[in-house]
Amino acid sequence: MGNQVGQIFVDADACPVKAEVARVALRCKWTVFYVSNSGMNIPKGDGLELVVVDGGFDAADDWIAERARAGDLVVTADIPLASRCVKAGARVLDFKGGEFSEASIGEAVARREILAKLREMGMAAGGPAPFDKRDRSAFLQRMDQVLRKLSKLP
Predict the structure, then answer these.
(1) Choice between 16 and 6, residue whose per-residue pLDDT is larger
(2) Are 51 and 33 in contact (CB under 8 A)?
(3) Alpha carbons 51 and 129: distance in angstroms, whole number
(4) How far apart are CA 151 and CA 68, in angstroms?
(5) Residue 49 phi/psi, 5° resolution?
(6) How high does pLDDT run on average in the chain?
């Protein structure tokens, strides 16, 4: 598809921005792999592909991490997967437009471990705030910026 720099890998099982990824990717002419543990509906278009991975709990994460490289974009809220992809040189966005980087991933991993311990001890409840329109907008804006930079577009 066009003069693309890389590919987009979407951790699709719980992704609320599948359509937004497709919209920006089609406009910028990037190929998208929606990677999942089971079949699902994905947006239609040239360069949009569903990859259903057989295997255990982390099979989709492993598939993405084995392929992500510098010049690629990974879309996930999974911190261990984000860490693996950042180490491989890929750009990584969460579903709300936040970017994981070498500078921020260590803190994200530590925060995840602390919250898991607090939940085990019954001292923390709940999860992330509900996904809303502002999150969707922030994601779209950040994804567009990242793809433009990776593609070296104006």
Answers:
(1) 16
(2) yes
(3) 29
(4) 16
(5) -130, 135
(6) 86
* CA atoms of 100 and 77, how far apart (whole Å): 10
Pick the more confident residue, 110 or 13. Answer: 13
Interstrand relation of 91-93 and 73-75 (parallel, antiparallel or unpaired): parallel
Tell me how far CA of residue 85 lies from CA of 24, 46, 63, 126, 135, in angstroms.
Answer: 21, 25, 11, 27, 22
Residue 4: both structure tokens together: 């693309």
User: Are the beta carbons of 137 and 129 closer than 8 angstroms?
Assistant: no
Number of structural domains (the chain) is 1
Report if residue 69 sits inside a domain. yes
Q: What is the largest CA-CA distance in the chain?
A: 52
- Residue where the block lists tokens 């987009």: 8
Residue 100: domain span: 7-151
The pTM assigned to this predicted structure is 0.83
Residue 2 lies in a domain: no
Span 5-24, average pLDDT: 92
Pair of tokens at residue 3: 């003069």
Please write the tens of the pLDDT for every residue from 72-124.
999 998 889 999 999 999 999 999 999 998 766 666 555 656 666 666 777 66
